[in-house]
Amino acid sequence: MKALCYNGVGDLRTERVPDPTIINPKDAILRVILSSVCGSDLHLLNGYVPTMREGDIIGHEFMGEVVEIGSEVKNLKKGDRVVVCSILGCGECQYCQSTQFSLCDNSNPHAWIPEKAYGDSPAGIFGYSHAFGGYAGSHADYIRVPYADRGCFVIPEGLPDEAAVFASDALPTGFMAADLADIQPGDVVAIWGCGGVGQMAIQSAFLLGASRVIAIDREPDRLRMAKDISGAEVLDFSKVDIQEALREMTGGRGPDRCIDCVGMEAVSEGLDYYYDKTKQFVRLESDRPIVLREAILACRKGGTVSIIGVYGGLVDSIPMGAAMNKALTFRMGQQHGQRYIPRLLEHLQKGELNSGFLLTHKMSLDEGMTGYDLFNKKETMRVVFAP
Amino acid sequence: MANKKQPVSSVLGMGQVEPDTSGSSQINVGNTERIWSVAGGALLATYGLRRGSFSGLVLATLGGFMVYRGASGYCPMNQAVGRNTAEPTAEDKSMDSIEIAKSLTINKPRKEVYAYWRQLENLPRFMFHLSEVRQLDNKRSHWVAKLSDSLLAKTLGTVEWDAEILEEVKNERLVWKSVADARIDNAGEVRFVDAPNGQGTEVHAVIKYRPPAGQLGGAIMKLFNPAFEQMIKQDLRRFKQLLETGEITTIEGQPSGRKSEQQSGKKPVSEHAKVDEKHESAML
Ligand SMILES: NC(=O)c1ccc[n+]([C@@H]2O[C@H](COP(=O)([O-])OP(=O)(O)OC[C@H]3O[C@@H](n4cnc5c(N)ncnc54)[C@H](O)[C@@H]3O)[C@@H](O)[C@H]2O)c1
Ligand SMILES: [Zn+2]
Ligand SMILES: [Zn+2]
């Protein structure tokens, strides 16, 4: 089959690789129909995730058709049209049973790698480096899905592929960001980052009762979508002082809930960007926590900071004094998609959430590198490959 | 000992049992074997270190082991460490064994977890470095280590030993020791404890082994002990996977763009060998 393979930092190639086969009884094989790029892939491509190997197939946000099932798969059959959670959960460990699927004890065959850095291992993720299991990703004609009964969700009839594919990753991630923020009816919510995850977080925040959502980015197209489609008030961080703007827009209080949908590759117009970039370059710091710092400073006293943008290693100069003395609550984690996907598919079907607009470019696998270049330059919201 | 830290087993109140001082922790290497041991060991050690991966580390360890075994048989090093080739000295006996202590919580009832483990024939299903465990009678069992790497297998032949259960409290604990003349004297204890809040069963494993040939062997083993610790932890993880999900999590046999894996159509020898060659310790 064809697959988009990592060959080094900034180097992706479409190659011929063997077809996947059932390895374990709970596996299924899917024919991939749509497979999207995600901001997380940029961390791999830009060299911030250290355990990639040449030849790894990338991609983790996808939907497709079940073409083969293992002997222990009970809830799926050939021909089912399904969307698959980007993070693997076994369904049986204590974490999965308490719906914290991204903390699954069993789904990372290389658990001993992150254990060294993190003290314990999080779940495996499709196409996302060997530290996260080394699973072959979805930018391919076919993909093997372990624990298929847990990870695959049948897409309701009438819901188009183009909307359903984002129920794999961007939507449950954005929704979880809003859920973690513990939004109370009437709350004012600030959201950094208007990529796919940020857009879904904006809509989810409204669904969970926010009265206002203020979204922050600097990409004009993304800000426009945040405003026109997702319904947020928007701030361009290249033009305004975010701290000042947020405080004044909230009567001096600051937003009740602050959500980081950017993560370790944040950029800024200020000196802090060069400070972090330099430290990152010499490996004194692995992540640029620009947004995290901003969120902590902006958040109202007693408020919540929800972090869904990914951090991988060490960060520097976190204003802990502000967090402590303002009695902030921190919530964070990789998405527990299996917890949210069924309900999100319903919201999509009822039109209470809108995800299809995230697909701004559809391409073939052969155009993989072109697609990622476009995405890295933020000239597209999400490129989706149709193998 | 140089290591001032209290062993984990004492924190847990486990691991009273000590391995014998017999087998290869005594000098019992014949002349020809000795020469082979040095040559093969040196080869393995360089090969292993060059690979720089976890599996490489294991190879290097075994290699280092063998060089030492071979060398110590006919060089005056014995004198230096004050030992006598026939009988273990008091110093050897009093020397600390090396300990590995690993725990894991399994989301299954204690009875079930214990029963699976106590059926010793099950162990190689998740302990990938074992090829066979045979129960000889209720207390005694025969263990065969798997040397999946062909080079290693050729050089070392098989490593086998007998073990004896010294203490058994059903659903609670097992204490065992290798019987005299094991290649690597070892002893251990596994405890099964209810985890709080119905989270299943805590499995606490303490394994002790006697470094071959006294203090120098000890120093070599100390160096490589982290690799063994990791191996034991992965064993426990697979045990957990089998009990909780009924299968062992793996990516072995999945497609990639790596030509080497495609052409031979051959799967890497083991999960450890498969895993990233360069990066495994590069996580921040
Ligand atoms: N936790 C999870 O399970 C999970 C799942 C998917 C994605 N993610 C993470 O969520 C984050 C966003 O994903 P995405 O796909 O939307 O990425 P994306 O790259 O499409 O979007 C990120 C956006 O952040 C903006 N940005 C950069 N610096 C900023 C700043 N200082 N202030 C405000 N905005 C800033 C960029 O302009 C861009 O529009 C990434 O870190 C990704 O890894 C997490
Ligand atoms: Zn993603
Ligand atoms: Zn699990």
Main attributes?
heterodimer; A: about 375 residues; alpha/beta; Quinone Oxidoreductase, Chain A, domain 1; Rossmann fold; 2 domains; seven-stranded mixed beta sheet; six-stranded parallel beta sheet; 14 helices; 15 strands; about 20% strand; B: about 280 residues; alpha+beta; Alpha-D-Glucose-1,6-Bisphosphate, Chain A, domain 4; seven-stranded antiparallel beta sheet; 11 helices; globular; disordered C terminus; binds nicotinamide-adenine-dinucleotide; binds zinc ion; START-like_dom_sf (chain B); ORF3 (chain B); COQ10_START (chain B); Cyclase/dehydrase (chain B)
Structure description:
The complex is a heterodimer of chains A (387) and B (284). Chain A has 387 residues and is α/β, with parallel strands linked by helices. Chain A folds into two domains: 2-168 and 335-385, Medium-chain alcohol dehydrogenases, catalytic domain (Quinone Oxidoreductase, Chain A, domain 1); 171-332, Rossmann fold, CATH 3.40.50. Chain A is built from 14 helices and 15 strands. Chain A has helices spanning 39-45, 94-97, 112-118, 148-151, 161-164, 170-180, 196-207, 220-228, 242-249, 271-281, 290-298, 320-325, 337-349, 368-376; strands at residues 2-6, 12-16, 28-36, 61-69, 81-84, 142-145, 152-154, 188-192, 212-217, 233-236, 257-260, 304-307, 329-332, 359-363, 382-385. In chain A, helix 6 (170-180) packs across helix 7 and helix 6 (170-180) crosses helix 13. Chain A is globular, with a radius of gyration of 20 Å. In chain A, 59% of the residues are buried. The model of chain A has no long low-confidence stretch (mean pLDDT 95). Mean pLDDT of chain B is 71; it is low at 26-36, 49-54, 68-94 and 264-284. Chain B is built from eleven helices and seven strands. Chain B starts with 7 loop residues before the first helix and ends in a 10-residue tail after the last helix. A seven-stranded antiparallel β-sheet of chain B has the order 1-7-6-5-4-3-2. Chain B folds into two domains: 8-24 and 94-245, Alpha-D-Glucose-1,6-Bisphosphate, Chain A, domain 4 (2-Layer Sandwich), CATH 3.30.530; 28-85. By secondary structure, chain B is an alpha+beta fold. In chain B, helix 2 (31-51) runs antiparallel to helix 3 and helix 3 (54-74) runs antiparallel to helix 9 (214-245). The longest helix of chain B is centred in the last third of the chain and has 32 residues, at 214-245. Bound molecules: nicotinamide-adenine-dinucleotide and zinc ion (ZN) (2 copies). Residues 38-40, 42-43, 169, 173, 192-198, 216-219, 222, 237, 261-263, 266-268, 290-291, 308-310, 334-335, 378 of chain A line the site of nicotinamide-adenine-dinucleotide. Chain B: Residues 268-284 have a biased composition (Basic and acidic residues). Chain B: It holds the Pfam family Polyketide_cyc. Chain B: This is Cyclase/dehydrase.
